[in-house]
Write a structure and sequence with these properties.
Helix content: under 10%
Radius of gyration: 17 Å
Number of helices: 1
Shape: globular
Strand content: over 45%
Largest sheet: 8 strands, antiparallel, barrel
Number of strands: 9
Order of helices and strands: HEEEEEEEEE
């Protein structure tokens, strides 16, 4: 067996930060866990950062979906509320814990991107407003620098689940991304 067949996949590493405005629980974001890959099903780059758990076991997550425009340098995309809108980016910020998950979907903003597929790097600066039910937050001075594609370990399947959407608008719920991680 040659040494190249023993090589392990490189994990995504990097840094991420942002100022969180108008939230009672968090004032800033610092990334500790990262994902960076092309989701070929929707033809968008999936870029995310999760914070370390705080003393209560809660954390924050920032996710951005960007169009696959190949290698780009300093390209600015509008962040819109429709994740399927061609040529635009989508984002959300979430608070999560052992028994809750509160996603704040972006209502508007922008992201400037430098992405190099060959080097497996992406640099972002971003700002966006987001909402969850009647609560509103703003993420400002956002920055991410990531290196190394995340190797997808996903199984695409159909299933259903029942959710308590109290403090949210009641209605049909469709999960487009579910992630399990080791604690």
């Amino acid at each position: 067996m040659n040494s190249s067949s023993k090589a392990k996949s490189k994990a995504t590493s990097g840094t991420a930060s942002a100022i969180v405005e108008r939230d009672d629980d968090y004032k800033s974001f610092e990334g500790a866990r990262f994902f960076f890959y092309l989701d070929e099903k929707i033809n968008k780059w999936y870029i995310s950062a999760g914070s370390a758990n705080d003393e209560q076991g809660n954390n924050q997550i920032i996710v951005l979906l960007l169009p696959d425009d190949g290698n780009v340098e300093g390209k600015t995309y509008d962040i819109v509320s429709d994740p399927e809108k061609p040529g635009a980016a989508y984002a959300f910020w979430a608070k999560a814990g052992h028994s809750f998950y509160q996603p704040y979907s972006a209502t508007g903003g922008s992201v400037t991107v430098t992405l190099n597929k060959n080097l497996q790097t992406v640099e972002l600066t971003f700002e966006f407003d987001a909402e969850h039910a009647s609560a509103h937050v703003s993420l400002t001075q956002g920055k991410m620098q990531l290196e190394g594609f995340t190797r997808e370990r996903k199984t695409r399947t159909s299933s259903s689940m029942k959710c308590d959407l109290s403090q949210s608008i009641n209605g049909p719920y469709q999960s487009t991304e579910t992630a399990l991680r080791k604690r």
